[in-house]
Amino acid sequence: MTTATTPGPGPLAGVRVVELAGIGPGPFAAMLLADLGADVVHVSRPGGVSLSINPAYDITNRNKRSVVVDLKAPDGPARVLDLAARADILIEGNRPGVAERLGVGPEDCQARNPALVYGRMTGWGQEGPLAQRAGHDIAYIALTGTLGMIGEPGRPPAVPANLLGDYAGGSLYLVVGVLAALHHARATGTGQVVDAAIVDGTSHLAAMIHAMTAAGGWQDRRGANLLDGGCPYYGTYETADGKYMAVGALEPQFYDLFLDLLGLPDFEDARKDWTRWGELREAVTARFKTRTRDEWTAVFEGTDACVAPVLSLREAPHHPHLAARGTFTDHGGITQPVPAPRFSATPTAVRTGPATAGADTADVARDWDVPDLLKGPE
Question: Where is this region: Disordered (predicted)?
Fold first, then answer.
């Protein structure tokens, strides 16, 4: 693990982003833009938003600046519109129609700034029968079929935290969308609205699985396929100390090496013989339980058997490979992942800790030339 430094701001230096306060995928998307060097102004609400985390530890607000605007006050919308007039991108995550009712919808903002990219982050999308319904990650991914394919057969689907829906299917697609739209806006002078829906992004993530299903290479049930735990040489196994090893020995040469190091030479022909998969799984399970996770890690260390220890969140930053790459850093006493991906000419970094609500009002008012931010609410 490294100590945070402050190199160049990153490849998005000079890009201005307004982020209307929200929870979940919107703040994470804005953090990613800020990590890449964009000047992200987080428009906080008076009193903040409902979160289960102390704002001082909310690293999704790192590398940002914050101002407080009450959008329900008479002068609130005008202050956001002043920021939008000077921004390249605006991100909001309200239910459809809310931003319009507050006076900061796409038409209001683009009337002030025709080149503005207006990014909308929702679960259900801007239209459709469920567009106005409340929801969270688990409900969104449930309807896409992706939740139903995760977990063991005969047991309830496994809940993948909120990584698959909120962040992979939501935040990352929003970021791709607004950057693509920004490219178009800079070429044409015309902005547009980006409708990033978690149901769309999560469905898109499963493109390969849909292709395999259509081709007859994937069964539409849990734990029956090559990559969902149905295959005994692609899965996780408990060790003698109650920890786990992950196995991904798919290719023949990796599979043969895996068997050799595990001490199971009698199963060389079982790789393609699914009738022996049950027998192979039992043998692999029994072998892994004879040693601890660290002992098995030593056995497979430096080999191409595609086996790795399953680490906890607290263990991960100390793994030799991640430590050597500086995948995690310490900033303000908080261990956190560094910005990704990496750039050769415009390196990124954790420059500042979580933004404190309203702490940057004077600086933003000066830098963005929005003096009304300094006025009290009317």
Answer: 338-363
Neighbour-count burial of 153, counting CB atoms closer than 10 A to its CB (0-12 exposed, 13-18 middle, 19+ buried): exposed
3-state SS, residue 76: helix
Pairing of strands 328-331, 334-337: antiparallel
Element (H, E) at 248: strand 244-248
First to last CA, the chain: 48
pTM over 0.85: yes
Q: Enumerate the active-site residues.
A: 136, 166
Q: Return averaged pLDDT per consecutive 10 residues of the chain, 378 residues in all.
A: 62 97 96 98 86 86 96 96 98 97 98 98 97 96 97 95 97 98 98 98 98 96 94 97 98 97 95 94 98 98 98 98 97 96 96 95 97 80
The token pair at 68 is 């407080």
Strand extents, DSSP E, 55-98: 64-68, 89-92
The whole-angstrom distance between residue 188's C-alpha and the CA centroid of its chain comes to 30
Contacts of 260 (CB under 8 A, 6+ apart): none
Distances (CA, A) of 361 to 12, 28, 65, 81, 282: 22, 21, 8, 15, 62
Tokens 């991640």 belong to 322
